[in-house]
Amino acid sequence: MNTNISAAAWLLLGMCAVAGMTTVNPWLTVFALLSLGVAQAIVWRSDSTRLFAYILGYHWLQASVDLLRANFSHVDLDAFYVRGGNAELATALALLATVVLAIGVRLGLGASRSLPFGQPDDPARLVSSRGWFFVYICAAVIAVVATIAGGLIPSLRFPLSVVAHMKFAALWILAYATFSDSRQMKGYFYLAIAFEVLTSFGGFFASFTTPLVVSILAISSAKAKLTFRQLSAVFLSALTLVSMVIIWTAVKEDYRKFASGDSQRQVVVVTYRDTVQELTRLISALDRADIVDAMEKLIARISYTEFFGLTLDYVPAVTDHEWGAIWGDALLRPLMPRFLFPDKVVYDDSSRTRLYTGASIAGADEGTSISIGYIAESYVDFGLPWMFVPIALLGLFMGRICRALSQNGRNGSLVGHAVSFAALLPMALTETSITRSFGGLIGAAMGALVILRYVFPAVLPHLARMARRG
Length: 470
Description:
Helix content: 55-70%
Mean pLDDT: 85
Shape: globular
Order of helices and strands: HHHHHHHHHHHHHHHHHHH
Radius of gyration: 22 Å
């Protein structure tokens, strides 16, 4: 990281920390700001994909957003939640877990401060944006087929979802190749983004968020030092994403009710045209009050610590620690694919949340899934202070995956960074259960390895010829 930028960032954090001492929750606010700076300093690499900066930044946001809300409302954090719970301790532990994860990632990445990619001798540099667009189209088609097949064959839904997710490696490398070289045509990238956004309409979830996040991070990675114009473009892209998410939050409840036929299931039973028309109608009917309410709902949705606070009060006072049962199950599940083990217990987020918080919440039968998140699960398994051991090991594993894929010598590192990006991106969400996220990480890493060893070497000559033909 540039020394001047680093000094400026620390100065800004220091000024915010001084201001934080005047809030209702002074010491916790200062700790939150310091944990943000420390976690980012540990993993920041000037020529990296910005992946871990994003993952840890989002971890921090989920841990601290309710603290910031409480400060702006001039309310003590422990009195902020209607359900109660130990909010202050939950926030502090979640922030500390973010720093511990960063340390694990740093150890996994190794001693080098840099994992350079996109070097002049990288074989992937022979491919034009037109070639990467062709790769993206093929990956998008495979993702659609895999998604449809997963719906038809429930026992294969998980591995096929991993296959579908790897299309974001193609989108990342398309965006990077387009904006790292001013000679490349940018129209192909804009076509890909338009396709992603348009096809996201008509689904049950806001699937436009992932391709936009991938694109923003890829563009910001395309240059080690961004110009003011490039920074402005990244900022405007991020602002557009936030605006779209706010609008989606405002309409999604009514839209999902319409799309599912009021069935309380996460399915779409109407045509694409009908869903687009309904979305258009709902969006056009929004007013200022709806937008403000949506912003509040979105902030509450991002927050992670409420159920963790309830868990701290409930375990071990009411329910004992599990002493490794949750993490053990997460480690074993990837070795037991459902098509070979059809009797494998179906995991339910909401049931686990009820068990360890005592809260009455909606579940799968009402079209909802609410998890306590992997940090709270680590506490349930091991208590304090041992809950941080598996979190550190998870960070170590993530760092090793990134390093192993990114330093693939035979194929160059650009494709390695792309597939590692796609494999690790879902780990940004702290609310995801380790039962789900660890299996997804293993599956994605295996898929990335297959792409590096077999798929890319097979298609590279064809892509290079395509580039030479112009």
